[in-house]
TrEMBL record:
Taxonomic source organism: Polaribacter marinus
Gene Ontology molecular function: any one: methyltransferase activity
The UniProt record lists the keyword Metal-binding: no
Keyword Transferase carried by entry: yes
InterPro entries listed in its UniProt record: 4pyrrol_Mease, 4pyrrol_Methylase_sf, 4pyrrole_Mease_sub1, 4pyrrole_Mease_sub2, rRNA_ssu_MeTfrase_I
One biological process term in Gene Ontology: rRNA processing
Listed Gene3D superfamilies: Cobalt-precorrin-4 Transmethylase, Domain 1, Methyltransferase, Cobalt-precorrin-4 Transmethylase, Domain 2
UniProt keyword terms in alphabetical order: Cytoplasm, Methyltransferase, rRNA processing, S-adenosyl-L-methionine, Transferase
Every Tetrapyrrole methylase domain range: 20-209
Any Pfam family the entry gives: TP_methylase
Superkingdom of source: Bacteria
Protein name stated in the entry: SAM-dependent methyltransferase
Amino acid sequence: MIGKLYLIPTTLGETEPLEVMPLSVKKVIEQIDYYIVENEKSARRFIKKISPKKSQPSLQIMLLDKYAEEIETRKYLDICKEGINVGLLSEAGVPAVADPGASIVKLAHEKGIQVVPLVGPSSILMAMMSSGMNGQNFAFNGYLPIEKGERKKAIKDLEKLSKDKNQSQIFIETPYRNEKMLSDLKATLTPTTNLCIAADITLPTEFIKTLMIKDWKHQQPDLHKKPAIFIIHK
């Protein structure tokens, strides 16, 4: 029997895991000792939090960070041939969505390994659910350009795309640049374009609000160093 690849969600911040994900995640973690992760320290901390009695020395951690060589990562699922299950953990939220874990999931399909996604918090989907915008047609665009001219063009292009396709446009920013992003959106988008800002999702400081740009001009939420999702719809 070939082992499976379990896609294991993590919390979006310092919340109790079982407040935001089902018991099935805890049960799977208690059964798996082999993990592919972005950061060993945070992965071990999450595993210990959701399953305090699990033996930390028994964990076999394989790193999928920016230093990981493809020649090595392609061997990460070889253990499945021995019938051993492997868990793929994101740094935050669900694996393989806006996350380097997608390469491991692709590898699993290539090797004929069953992929098992587990339910957990996804900041992208939770922001979309909460926005009041078109959830039938939306796109995630990752990070926008940093250079001012390129960023302005990207914002205008997304606004036009939203209008032409009736499509909600989702993107993110490095947390310490959130407030600059909001300033750029206020200065670039037309007054009647809707903007949703969803920050610190699932945390006690959660902030989710959708307003037209003309109304955002009178508001300045504290977004500094807070994980945030931005959604626009024209």
